[in-house]
Fold each of these.
Amino acid sequence: MKTPNIAVIYLPGNNCEEESLRAITSNGMDGKIVRWNQRKGIEKYDGYVITGGWAYEDRIRAGVIASKDPIIRDVRRQAEQGKPVLGICNGAQVLVEAAMIPGLRGRVEMALAPNRNPLVSGYYCAWIRLRSAQQKGRCAYTMTYDEGQVIPMPVAHGEGRFVTADQDVLHDIKKNGQIIFQYCTPEGEATSEFPWNPNGSTDAIAAICNREGNVMAIMPHPERASFVANLPSCPEKIDASGDIAMMRAPSAANNVFTSMKRFIGERQ
Amino acid sequence: MSTVEMVVGLKIPDGTALSAKQALREMGFAELGGLARYAYYSFDIEGDAGQFREKISDADILVNANKHTVSFEVPTEGTSVLVQDREKPIGLMNTLRERLGMKEIRGMDAGTLWVLSIEGNARKESARKMAEELLANVHYQRYTVM
């Protein structure tokens, strides 16, 4: 199998490109940070990660100016050929505003609205837990997750609440199995309750894929939780204490990228 | 009960307005000549509106005199698009009432007012398209073309 080569799309104002690249290369993939104005040759990559941050300072609203950037049109064309595209946090906001997620009717069908959070208004960061909501392999990023598996990840956003004014859209994404990850309690129950659900997202949605499963918008940050050393205090980390190799071992969140690699391998 | 409208603009260059104008033109809205952005507030108040205007323009939570302009009249030049969240700004109202003591506020709304200079005869229709395609996300916001 040819080593997958991933473009980490960097838009002005992003700040997670290095962590994203590290998560990619730690899984045996090649990767390169590709700036928004380096579009030439963008089609040669096997997959794309649109990183977190504040592209174009989130002017007007998060992700909307970036969604009009020519490089996102290029990425859309590659997604239409079946290549995987992963949008993390601000990247997720870009995919929603670009109508690539949920991608049912060719228009913007959802929003990532300001958080609904009893503690603070605006930006909020915390460790939360996600529940894998679909059967293994439903999309390019869950090839190695069991349905119901609980994964710790950090969130860091002010506009992360998946909403839609069109109830048919909500019906369709449920029917199609497009809700990939949900915020959950420590026991793995999807919930709308704070603090487990940090933003009041509809149906506890933390990540949605397109119908085909090759594009996913995820608000939490798997790239910031890829290694045991990244995790908050937990038995896994306590066991690794004093052992650098165990600290550098991949954590459950890293499987998002492991899955992406496997998906690309199966396409080749 | 009376209603006081307040618009807050920037004295300094407005990067968001510049980005919005550039994006709209790149999206094909060649008829857009200029664009200005204001923060918009509407207050339902008990009591003297004049005193309230004075008090609210001194509330530096909404206005910083070093960089903002304040007006109590909505701009009438151009075609305006008012974009507001579907949810009322309850947190901000509570801050004004409870922390800053403005108990005369009975209700309020907030949003972003875009004032567009549009060439041609179909100005309102053009403004509506700009709202739909860039300035508002109708899944959590509403907009009014004026």
Note: The two ends of chain B are 24 Å apart (CA to CA).
Amino acid sequence: MSADKGMEVSIAASVAAKLARVEAVAAYPITPQTHIVEHLAEIVANGELDAAYINVESEHSAMSACVGASATGARTFTSTSAQGMELMHEILFIASGMRLPIVMASVNRALSSPLSIWGDHSDVMAARDTGWIMLFTENGQEVVDSIIMAFKIAEDRRVLLPAMVNLDGFSLSHVIEPIQFPSQEDVDRFLPPYAPLYTLHPDKPVTMGAYAMPELYTEAKYSQEIAIRNSKAVIKEVMEQFSKDFGRKYNIVETYNIEKADTVFMALGSINENIKTAIDLLKDNGKELGLVAPRLFRPFPADELVEVLKTKKKLAVFERVMPGGAMNGPLYNEIASMVVQNGLDLQLENYIFGLGGRDVEPEELIDVFEQISTSAKITHADNKNYGVIGVRS
Amino acid sequence: MRMKSLERYTDTPDFEYATSGHRACQGCAEILALRLGLKVFGKDSIIAMATGCMEIISTPLPTTSWRLPWIHVAFENAAAVASGIEAGIKIQMEKGKIAKKDISVIAIAGDGGTSDIGLQALSGAMERGHDFTYICVDNEAYMNTGIQRSSSTPFGAMTTTSPPGKKSFGQKTQKKNMPKIAVAHNIPYVATACPSYPFDFLAKIKKAKEAKGPAYIHVLSVCPTGWRIPSDQAIHYGRLAVRTGVFPLYEVENGHYRITYSPEPLRPVTEYIKGQGRFRHLTDDLIAQIQDQVNHDWQELKNYSEMK
């Protein structure tokens, strides 16, 4: 194990792809993903990584070329953000439907319009039902480790699904953090070369991407659904193996200070570091707030969330995306469904925050905590469902 | 005699890579073109096919008409998928993960998948110089979805979205010149072909296969269903398209044009137009306009082919 190295998280993500020995990269530049693909191009140009680097002319072609490369059996990686993810949206479904273990670093950014290059989760939440495994990361170390784990998960014969590693644009992608890189030797042991089940090769011709009539489409999609549901067990296994091999512990649901807290916050991504700061500040004043942070969003880890939430009284779900006319944000809706189905006695609150790169300070989170602690059910000024933190009317 | 000629191009000319049992319309010249063309490519080939007639007639789960590795991803991205395949195969050969051999990567799409929705992906793949052959099987409209106009539909043709009416004579625009767009990418090989001239077509497939880098073949594929002609007339109308100069057969090797079959003196375009239901509504004036355009384009092509 090497010592900590100060490095921009995007650069670290490309080093992780190198450590995973990716064989094909197809990518198109978009802010804030650029540093990842630039540095990967450099790594390939320097001969540090033996990979095909396809400079495609759009994200649609990026994902399409990834599908082609992955179908030949090459370990395939790409990265995108925002509009880019929307442009490749069509092919995201096809990559998962064709069970190709592509790994993508998704550098989360707001969607236009209005145009914004800054971070939020509009992009990934619009892609949440594409059949991809979705991991969320809080810091640079998690980004590196998750990219390496994502390949092992995706390529497992029991899974064979594409996986997305989400990291917040700018607030995570562009910060410099101390990162420990595992040695190539250790990564090779953890992640052996991809051994595909079927490939496009003349020695054994197969047809991929056939169409299904009504009597088969449901069965095809259902078998894919079973695969993503069952992938959770493999994801746990891989995280355990990673913890064993590299000493850094990963769970599909992480918690912070939940033992004594009745009130719990939940969010995806780098905001969790701010929530932890708020928790520590509250603790100094003798108040207890807990954090439940899903590392895994797809498949949705409902059982694991129930396990940590079943004795709690209040849960505030924080999301970086506008519901778009839905009752609440997508994570909240998922949680509400989980609460109902499992008969939990949990008061739920939903907060929208951090859109288009808007910063949220720990103090604002503390305000939310105080509000929740002192009232039975929050009613927001113009909306009974969710509050929008810091919005000016 | 026929088989003997075919043997010049293939190892096993009687082996079918596009097998029977597919659901193409009677008299479809598109599946005929592919059936012949794939014999030249032979077994060491991988096909990336766009959504369209050839995809939908050949692969209802759990069956397939292809005896070659074949993949369909979407409508607009056959060239991008082929790029990934070519790059994926090459890197794995370099790394010794798969055995080295000469594998042809073939992207196949219709005129809509090529000249409209797939143009960007095709341009990107040609510009990047992938070693692959792109075959556009052009039946001059979106036939698979019910005969809607594409940018490859000829001037005056009736389609379901370019219907003639009181204020319309059908397709208002000239057919997009896809081969010229391919030539503008400075790729080693571009050709037009038509299965009505099978040996011209096969010779071009062979050149495309052997070209180092991108090759583009634009195949006029007569569609009896969409053109409103009897199903036994596909070959006949393909010949007429060539002999009238409506669809000249030529190739462009490293930028040098060569007419591979000279139909001079050109037959009048009326011979091609009459008898096709899609042109039934055309007035003499419009037919004269088409004739003028054909004369102009033929002269331009001759000028190109005389340039050294």
Note: Chain A has two domains: 4-246, 253-388.
